[in-house]
Amino acid sequence: MSIFKTALVVVMAMGLGSLSAVASEYKQNEIIVKFKDGAFRSRLMMNDLYSATGVTKVRRYKGIMKGMEQLTLQDNVKVQDAVAELMRSDLVEFAQPNYILHAYPIRTQAGGIPCIPGFEIPGCEPGDGGGDGGGGGGETPIPCLFPGIPFPPGCTDEGGGTPGNPGNPGNPGNPGPSRPEVAPAPAEVIPPVADPDLSKTYGMNKIGAIEAWKTHRGSKSIIVADIDTGVDYNHEDLSFNMWRNPNPTQNDLVGFDFVHNDGLPYDDNQHGTHTSGTIGAVGGNGKAISGVAQQVSIMALKFLSGEGSGTTADAIRAIDYAIDNGAKILSNSWGGKGDDDNKALYAAIERAKAKDVLFIAAAGNDGTDNDGKDPAYPAAFNNDNLIAVAATDAKDGMAFFSNYGKKTTHVAAPGVDVYSTVPGNRYAKFSGTSMACPHVAGAAALIWSKNPEWTYKQVKKVLMETVDVLPSLQGKTITGGRINVLKALRSME
To answer: Which of 136, 182, 234, 376 is the most buried (most CB within 10 A)?
Structure first.
């Protein structure tokens, strides 16, 4: 049997719902530690602890992250040994590996994998799997499922902007396009001009957004942090709705890049720009489409590299940046498998809750039950301020790739063939719970802009109580329904 056929048999045996890695991944020489609040820690005590653990470098966090440190270990020290050594100290609240997190793979068509003559692959679709380039876009490369094995045909192992390819975890990858400076915000289009390609965004009709816009378009005072691969902040359909930092200190005019540690969170992947367009592509500017919130402030926070991966340490830095800078909603189309002991990430979401911030999370693209033994996190966490989102299609079915969970997944939203922005003033169709999540983030922004004095609990409650109940979602989500922002807004009258 050829190596190609062997790989294909493995894929078929795994099932399409298990294409992403199920084992926890982490940086081989890094750990995250949280010291107990109020614990006395002298320099001598800490130096002894670092020496016993094999620490060579310490990164200390401040502000709401005070007491947390990111430690780099000697090359010959195993992560699990260092964690065990730290946990023996009475000073330590928790210690853990610096887990790797991934942008949930983009599926560029409903099946996500092209059919191969002579093989029966569940859910495959004819064609080459390329994305819809829309306004000037070309085909989107398909990442190979196994490095070095050409499956699906035409796939590539190259990173640096290939959607869905995890590449080298936590590293920037290929340089890709240069990261442009932030252009001045354009003027608002008054009176509004119809967006010509709204018919391509079927999801806006499904969730009642188009009708809702007749009375409520949103507000720039509501900040949504898109924590992802970055955003094309100069995109013609996003620039007006980008957050503008009133007090930049690190050239962080529209957000921050935690991969390169600078103020230019440019999207060298496509994933983050696509999710941002669904949250809040500018409505009524005569350009292509509109996001759910036609007016909003999108904070671009890049912790995922161009190859679609990043670390827990950078994820929590992004979360805390968003909290510190006034974001009310965090949109998170990423996660990891088997990381239920990721206490640092859980604690970051709890810090968001303490600041009355909603955390919206994609359920994951494994087609599995997040209530079961192998859930995806952060979607399966039980934080009260978290809303986990499954994906539906244009026919109101649950997407075959969507994770679900009648105890852990709250609602669903359109996530198949979602048409949205991609870098370079282009537009494309992608599928995934990554595409469903920003529908909910945008809906939350619309609701909160109508009642800015509300708490996260009230926003979450109205989103869940006004869903359109669908047969396909019964027993699959807590509500059994897909969000409906029009019903949510009308329930508040």
So the answer is: 376
Cβ neighbour number for residue 470 with a 10 Å cutoff: 18
Examine the residue annotation and report whether 339 is marked as an active-site residue of this protein. Answer: no
Query: CATH topology for 26-100?
Result: Alpha-Beta Plaits (3.30.70)
* pLDDT tens by residue, the chain, 493 residues: 333 332 332 232 222 333 333 457 899 999 999 999 999 999 999 999 999 999 999 999 988 888 999 999 999 999 999 999 999 999 999 999 999 999 997 765 433 444 333 333 334 444 333 333 333 333 344 444 444 444 444 445 443 333 333 334 444 444 445 799 999 999 999 999 999 999 999 999 999 999 999 999 999 999 999 999 999 999 999 999 999 999 999 999 999 999 999 999 999 999 999 999 999 999 999 999 999 999 999 999 999 999 999 999 999 999 999 999 999 999 999 998 867 789 999 999 999 999 999 999 999 999 999 999 999 999 999 999 999 999 999 999 999 999 999 999 999 999 999 999 999 999 999 999 999 999 999 999 999 999 999 999 999 999 999 999 999 999 999 999 999 999 999 999 8
Domain with CATH 3.30.70.80 in the chain: 26-100
271 is catalytic: yes
Does the structural domain 198-491 have CATH classification 3.40.50.12160?
Answer: no
* DSSP code of residue 463: H
Q: For residue 154, give Cα distances in angstroms to 114, 247, 482.
A: 10, 47, 35
Give every CB contact of residue 259 below 8 A, 6+ residues apart in sequence: 172, 302, 303, 304, 305, 310, 314
The string of DSSP letters for 355-416 reads: TT-EEEEE--SS--BTTSSS-EETTT---TTEEEEEEE-TTSPBPTT--B-TTT--EEEE-S
- Listed in order, the ranges of the chain carrying CATH 3.40.50.200 are 198-491
Of 290, 305, 402, 434, which one is the catalytic site residue? Answer: 434
What pTM value is reported for the model?
Answer: 0.85
Catalytic position from the list 271, 274, 410, 439: 271
